């Protein structure tokens, strides 16, 4: 396995491929936005369905409340993601403008910051001074270095509307799973005997699959991440069902 990995690394680390990869820059994956939209869609919609079923309300009530939650919560989450991403971009631009101003007004102070940043990385003597000179000879690179090293801000920002769209799409697609058996019963001549059972099975499978995919972003085996998401989603649904059952006398 190590031999195969070594061959792969050698193939992808030729000077030409490294140069091409660095020139392209980092690209953002919207899979993270999709996964978290899917998790929230499955949890909240199934919780609503569970609560209404626990209250022993009619199928059309389940559909109405489930669909209302699906669209409203999905849109709310997408808007929140959009605003959050846009705020990060605005922070980057504000900080960039401040750094450019500092470089113009007091370049020696900003040079000293670069010097200390690279001294902390192990540079010293003439090599340190040469590194400082090279970085500060280009004001754009100088400002970018300060953004990354002093403020820990990523230069490649996420496109806000794409992140929001990924979240909203995932929320709708996965959030529709808990409602589907009830929609089928409402529209079909061949209804399920127990639509809530099929809703639970479908949503449980979605919980596990989402958790397994989520493991890409956390240091955890896919099956443990899947079981964790399944357990948390099931707990939320159980709580909603219990509340619905306790309050069904009000319906």
UniProtKB/TrEMBL annotation:
GO terms for cellular component: endomembrane system. It is a multi-pass membrane protein. GO terms for biological process: intracellular manganese ion homeostasis. Keywords: Membrane, Transmembrane, Transmembrane helix. This is GMP synthase. GO terms for molecular function: manganese ion transmembrane transporter activity. Its main location: membrane. The chain crosses the membrane at residues 34-55, 61-84, 163-184, 196-213, 222-243. It comes from the Bacteria. It is found in: Endomembrane system.
